[in-house]
Amino acid sequence: MHEGEEHGPLAGFTVGVTAARRAEEFGALLERRGAAVLHAPALRIVPLADDGELLAATREIIESAPDAVVGTTAVGFRGWIEAAEGWGLGDRLLETLRGVELLVRGPKVKGAVRAAGLTEAWSPGSESMAEVLDRLLAQGVAGRRIALQLHGEPVPGFIEPLRAAGAEVVAVPVYRWVDPVDITPLDRLLDITLARGLDALTFTSAPAAASLLGRAEKRGLLPELLSALRDDVLVACVGPVTALPLRARGIDTVQPERFRLAPLVQLLCAELPARAHTLPVAGHRVEIRGHAVLVDGGQRPVPPAGMALLHTLARRPGWVVSRADLLRALPGSGTDEHAVETAMARLRTALGAPRLIQTVVKRGYRLALDPVADNPDVSGAC
Hints:
alpha/beta, Rossmann fold, Arc Repressor Mutant, subunit A, 3 domains, four-stranded parallel sheet, 15 helices, 17 strands, 42% helix
């Protein structure tokens, strides 16, 4: 942050959040760093007490105990035990789990298991489901019955190898995800994405990514969405499993090294400012972001029409851009070039430095670019 800056690293950027779980926490982390957050859950979680599939799987495990149970998430394991208690099956489920081999993916699940009065048989140091799979296959699973506690989404590449090796796999679907009751927020997020109103779109689960793609396809907007996500909107996923539906559509994604919300926020704090366009203009340092501009480190909120003009001028910094070209950049402006003059006046006021943009009589407008040799930003496109 430069001297005098009071904004966060995400100031001026708009980030879309598709998460259903922990969305408030995620949004707060982004907003504390200056981002404008647009939240639209792509899915909703079926309440555990109403989930007939989880109840059926729990009864099946109690009535016919598996040889091994794999715990994948702490919140999912705790939710399973709490749901069983609500159905009056808590003691019977715990008694069953005490008699089987309990494998847990990491320390958080281990804590949930021990809090329930149980003891895990083994946990990988890597927190990797691949390592859990390798251990099971090395032990031999032919004829064995293995229960897998899911957490809202399948575990790709886990169940299939076990079944191919002769195991019977029982899925325990804790926190199943289904379509939102109200699809309006998701449609709004989709429309804003298509209009390039987002700088980044985030996903914390593969089903959420698949849901957004599916909704776009249902509305006949999938090609437009793919174009936006491939070319203009940064797509950030919490991990590689979450990214699978997007990568299958040819969409590049970024992911943090640690698959957690805080590292995902840190990644956005690095990626989005690096994509901003910075120029030396009329003796000022101007950084053009999604919906705001930083002038000498101070944030200047700019209305959408002004941002459209500024992005157009910045595509050819220092060159004159005609009123006709600027008019085409204005959303819903029609054919009245007076709209350009009105939007330009408001833009100059918002920037707080009128000399940043020069009027070239009878020709148009230009950014008053400083003559700086070997400036790598000058030739870049905005």
